[in-house]
Amino acid sequence: MYCLRTALLPVIGLFNAAYARLDTDSASNLAVYWGQNSYNQGSGNLTQQPLGYYCENTNIDVFQLAFVTVINGIGGAPQVNFANQGDNCTTFPGTDLLNCPQIGADITKCQGKGKTIILSIGGATYSEGGFGTEEEAIAGANLIWETFGPQTNSSRPRPFGDATVDGFDLDFEATVRNMVPFASRLRSLMAADASKKYFLTVAPQCPYPDLYNKEMLEGKVDFDAVFVQFYNNFCGLNTFEPGQEEQKSFNLGEWSEWAKTVSKNKKVKVIVGAPANQRAAGSGYVDASKLAEIVKYSRKFSSFGGVMLWDASQAYANGNFIETVKGALNSGFAGCRFGWRRTQMPMAHPVV
């Protein structure tokens, strides 16, 4: 593996700050879920802030908005839940769908700062169980696209107005049916829109194969990244053994093998999901210094794409957690991002 001369690292840091985004050629992505106020502070500076507040942080590349909790809701509209940030929204008549123009404005603002904004569907409270038929699944994908994708002539209510998200994240934590046609339809709709790059991601738990997203992960859906939740399970980050090439429980290697041999997209990025605070998960939390060790270990896997944090409110209540993690990701930038070559003089272009 070639490395970039350290003299160029300050320049790269400036480049990253200006063009932060989900980069599927990179091992230094930092993604953060926003929307659930999981630190659960009712007021004060540690309560969940508007999305635009967090987008000022140049260390964060991707935000997953959590969650679309119902796909087919009252009045034929989906439902979203953004905890305290939904308090300033209204509701579209005849539905339970929130109308949140201020979040839409923040999405546009964040995208202007180079952030990738992905809308996450599911979460722990999702209870629809998927779809009864393949046709219903395709119709559900069309509904999500018309509601949150690019604005069309459809009369459907749009919570974010004319703002368009950059893709969708599937986070199902209970049994679901017909999610392959649902996800595949979303992928085809995104591919048909040449105006921008869209992303389709999934957030399985770390035991492999994942119980609830198994069918989608059997090489049937073209995902750009998987945000593997290495917490609340026997394979959590807390089981990582420093200095051991072969890990007994922490199974990033198993997910890397999936990426290379099973995934429909053989260039899919496996992103290590971590609790951002002790209170963010029942188990699996490690402090930033140990997470930095895990990042260093993870770089040996070509599919490694960075770190995902649950969630913004937890991270901001945990000192310099975000800054330390991003520093660890960037410290390996030279060897893992663009494949720059070391010569006597720094190269001015990437070697492919």
- Biggest sheet layout: 8 strands, parallel, barrel
Query: How many structural units, i.e. domains?
Result: 1
Order of helices and strands: HEHEEEEHEHEHEEHEHEHHH
- Report the top-level CATH class: Alpha Beta
The chain-level structural class is: alpha/beta
Protein name: chitinase
Organism: Coccidioides posadasii (Valley fever fungus)
EC number: 3.2.1.14
Catalytic activity: Random endo-hydrolysis of N-acetyl-beta-D-glucosaminide (1->4)-beta-linkages in chitin and chitodextrins
Question: Can you walk through the features of this model?
Answer:
- It catalyses: Random endo-hydrolysis of N-acetyl-beta-D-glucosaminide (1->4)-beta-linkages in chitin and chitodextrins.
- Belongs to the glycosyl hydrolase 18 family. Chitinase class III subfamily.
- InterPro entries: Cts1-like, GH, Glyco_hydro18_cat, Glyco_hydro_18_chit_AS, Glycosyl_Hydrlase18_Chitinase.
- With 352 residues, the protein is α/β, with parallel strands linked by helices.
- It has one domain: Glycosidases (TIM Barrel), CATH 3.20.20.80.
- The chain is built from 10 helices and 11 strands.
- The protein has helices at residues 9-18, 51-54, 101-112, 134-148, 179-192, 252-261, 288-298, 312-316, 321-331, 333-336; strands at residues 29-34, 62-70, 79-80, 90-91, 98-99, 116-123, 167-172, 199-202, 225-229, 269-275, 304-310.
- Strands 1-2-6-7-8-9-10-11 form an 8-stranded parallel beta barrel, surrounded by 5 helices. Strands 4-5 form a two-stranded antiparallel sheet.
- Strand 9, helix 6 and strand 10 (269-275) form a beta-alpha-beta unit.
- Helix 4 (134-148) crosses helix 5 and helix 7 runs parallel beside helix 9.
- The longest helix has 15 residues, at 134-148.
- The chain starts with 8 loop residues before the first helix and ends in a 16-residue tail after the last helix.
